Q: What sequence folds into this?
């Protein structure tokens, strides 16, 4: 050989090893970045990062297409001009790009029809949970706490219970419905005998996100909609962060109490706490200084948020991903997540319309903590609640390590 | 259906392709439980987070993780020796 690798080759190698590697980024880094991105979204788009409002928009377009618009309401705008939808599109694009660059994109079909059923059931439970908790693991929990609204803490309680119920289901399924099939001394082998194939069948897809991004950017620039273009980039950042740090809220809440991946779950929870502390601080500054409306994204807090959290927590475990996890895995090529995503897009507008017309009494009052306790005490109280949550996680960690 | 095959003396393959968290970890533990000490298990997975979760679960249980390699795009082989 004798030829020294060039600088560009060196940079590519470093990016491959350091950014798009097999192990992924540490979850604490993911948590910090998600907190920062949430502040950016709040400052730029006047919305914390949320997900389900985008599904509502997509679903309303589907209903409109089949002529059932009056049932769920007409979409307010096209998906490229609805802030949450743009963020979701960005998330898909970001996760897809990260998966392609990490050699992790692959169309993955579920092993059995049980998985298809799980995706549908989990998707329905999540949609129902979102209607009750007024938001998913983002709008109802992570972003809700970030904007200093009480409803995020209520969903947190529900998510812990729902995740634990999900764990019971997972354990039951692993024991009852599936077992190892032992085949002794077979000569025909699948993957393990295959040598590492040098050809990537998906490498042609590498340019796809670039083309989509270029088209969308041209569209936004030509129409002068820089706010939406910015939100698209925020979504892309979230997608890359989630895919690279494998920031899975479903694992975080499922395995908290002696689950099969309990250490992963505890680390994820600490990542979530870091993100919350950063997000709360940033959002407090923006709201206190009057850069954004203090009541922005403050939603009702009541018993329905806890029930919603339970349903959502159970649903995300059954479907194998939360709201953001489903988008990220769909972009990574998991067919099960495609089914869960379609289910949520179809069912959410219907549940939302039903509850809003017939059962809006279930919601509690809107509680913005600084307006109840004052700005100073309000912030301290929110920090104290986050530290109480961290103490609970540390106690679970202690209990796990002590056996 | 999870395929668990003996490919040669003291060497087994567990194919959990198509399964997402937490099933790869659950089945890896089940498979290791059937091995004798010193025997080797190859776990084949197409779930990216499992590249971290499966080796960690194995080493937490006191087993030796010998290697983690990509065998094709989006598919990895994790080799574990039972201790």
A:
């Amino acid at each position: 050989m004798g030829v020294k690798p060039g600088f560009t080759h060196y940079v590519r190698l470093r990016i491959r090893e350091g950014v798009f590697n097999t192990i992924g980024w540490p979850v604490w880094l993911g948590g910090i970045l998600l907190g920062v991105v949430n502040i950016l979204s709040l400052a730029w788009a006047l919305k914390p990062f949320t997900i389900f409002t985008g599904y509502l928009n997509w679903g309303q377009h589907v209903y409109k297409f089949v002529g059932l618009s009056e049932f769920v309401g007409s979409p307010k705008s096209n998906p490229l001009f609805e802030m949450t939808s743009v963020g979701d599109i960005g998330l898909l694009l970001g996760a897809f790009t990260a998966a392609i660059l990490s050699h992790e994109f692959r169309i993955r079909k579920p092993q059995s029809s049980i998985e298809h059923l799980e995706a549908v059931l989990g998707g329905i439970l999540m949609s129902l949970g979102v209607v009750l908790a007024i938001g998913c693991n983002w709008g109802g929990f992570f972003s809700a706490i970030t904007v200093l609204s009480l409803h995020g803490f209520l969903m947190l309680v529900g998510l812990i219970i729902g995740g634990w119920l999900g764990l019971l289901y997972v354990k039951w399924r692993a024991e009852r419905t599936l077992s190892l099939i032992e085949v002794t001394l077979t000569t025909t082998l699948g993957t393990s005998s295959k040598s590492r194939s040098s050809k990537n069948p998906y490498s042609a897809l590498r340019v796809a996100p670039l083309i989509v991004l270029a088209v969308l950017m041209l569209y936004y620039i030509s129409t002068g909609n820089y706010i939406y273009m910015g939100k698209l980039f925020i979504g892309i950042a979230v997608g890359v962060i989630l895919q690279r740090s494998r920031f899975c809220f479903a694992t975080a809440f499922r395995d908290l109490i002696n689950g099969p991946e309990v250490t992963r779950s505890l680390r994820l929870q600490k990542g979530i706490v870091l993100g919350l502390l950063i997000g709360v601080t940033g959002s407090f500054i923006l709201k206190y200084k009057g850069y954004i409306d203090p009541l922005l994204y403050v939603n009702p807090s009541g018993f329905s948020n806890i029930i919603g959290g339970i349903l959502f927590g159970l649903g995300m475990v059954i479907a194998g991903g939360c709201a953001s996890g489903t988008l990220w895995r769909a972009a990574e090529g998991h067919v099960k997540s495609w089914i869960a995503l379609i289910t949520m897009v179809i069912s959410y507008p219907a549940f939302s319309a039903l509850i809003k017309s017939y059962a809006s009494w279930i919601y509690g009052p809107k509680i913005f903590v600084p307006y109840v306790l004052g700005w100073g005490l309000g912030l301290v109280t929110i920090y104290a609640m986050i530290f109480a949550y961290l103490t609970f996680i540390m106690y679970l960690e202690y209990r796990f390590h002590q056996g | 259906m999870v395929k668990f095959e003996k490919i040669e003396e003291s060497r087994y393959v567990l194919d959990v392709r198509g399964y997402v968290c937490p099933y790869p970890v659950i089945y890896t533990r089940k498979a290791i439980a059937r091995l004798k000490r010193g025997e080797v298990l190859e776990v084949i997975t197409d779930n990216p987070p499992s590249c971290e979760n499966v080796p960690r679960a194995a080493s937490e249980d006191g087993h030796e993780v010998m290697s983690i390699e990509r065998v094709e795009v989006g598919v990895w082989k994790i080799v574990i020796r039972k201790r």
